[in-house]
Amino acid sequence: MSKVLNKNDFELKLRDMGRMYHIHHPFHIRMYQGECSKEEIQGWVANRFYYQTAIPIKDAAIMSNNPPLEDRRKWIDRIIDHDSVGGGIEAWLELGEAVGLKKEDLLSHKFVLPAVKFAVDAYVNFAKQSPWKEAAMSSLTEMFAPQIHQQRLDTWPKNYPWIEQKGLRYFQKRLSEARRDVQHGLSLTLEEFNTLQLQERACEILQFKLDILWTICDALYLAYELKRPPYFNIKDCHAQRKITSN
Ligand SMILES: O=C(O)c1cc(C(=O)O)c2c(n1)C(=O)C(=O)c1cc(C(=O)O)[nH]c1-2
């Protein structure tokens, strides 16, 4: 960028970064085209659960960095969306059951690949260590999330009829929640990141978050599509993270 953008152009610039959203990753493309095996879907659900559990922790870290009361009130809603009774974490556990994974296996994170763990932990650490406005705006990949949730709702019942329908509640639930979160996150970003330097910083942060999501998919692709999980070539060493549920 060579000069500070007005709000409209800055929003367009941020939205344009959706070209790098993980919806375009080969793993996600295969998933929505119905080409994933049961093991791949299970692997994705088990690994993504690590991201799910991290989100409210990340949001609590943002709260701990002392945003103003108005923003805290809105941020509390995000934590409730995930951690309340019947909330996102429970809905994801239902998804786990619907794809044939045991609840205790999800909760133990025993199938989580190291690269997924490192990527997700980087997100939580960023939220802990950064000024709250920077951490808040890093959630803006959610601008692109309703499309990916809708895509799953539209294609999974046809492509993966073995998945119990009740497991899809999570995606339905996120459609409206993500839109509300984005309204808040985006208006805050457009208002506060109002110099050239700050706008460049905001783009860097959004790129960091896109990198996290893409890296998660890279790890899944390597482990489940190319069948090269960590230590795959070393005798008896990768069995511990192999998906074993039915
Ligand atoms: O399924 C997806 O592809 C996807 C992506 C993202 C995202 O873009 O970070 C989120 C979610 N789902 C999601 O369900 C969710 O609750 C969520 C919260 C956040 C965040 O950064 O605060 N991202 C996402």
Structural summary, described in words:
By secondary structure, this protein is an all-alpha fold. It is globular. The model has no long low-confidence stretch (mean pLDDT 95). The protein contains eleven helices and no strands. It has one domain (20-189, 211-241): Heme oxygenase-like (Heme Oxygenase, Chain A), CATH 1.20.910.10. The chain is 68% helix and 0% strand. Bound molecules: pyrroloquinoline quinone (PQQ). Pyrroloquinoline quinone is lined by residues 55, 139, 141-142, 145, 148-149, 174, 213.
Radius of gyration: 18 Å
Specify the helix fraction band.
55-70%
CATH-defined topology: Heme Oxygenase, Chain A
Structural class: mainly alpha
So what's the oligomer here? Answer: single chain
SSE blueprint:
Layout: H1 7-16, H2 26-32, H3 38-64, H4 69-83, H5 88-98, H6 103-108, H7 114-129, H8 132-137, H9 145-159, H10 169-192, H11 196-225
Residues 55, 139, 141-142, 145, 148-149, 174, 213 line the site of pyrroloquinoline quinone.
Label this structure with key terms.
246 residues, mainly alpha, Heme Oxygenase, Chain A, binds pyrroloquinoline quinone, oxidoreductase, PQQ biosynthesis, EC 1.3.3.11
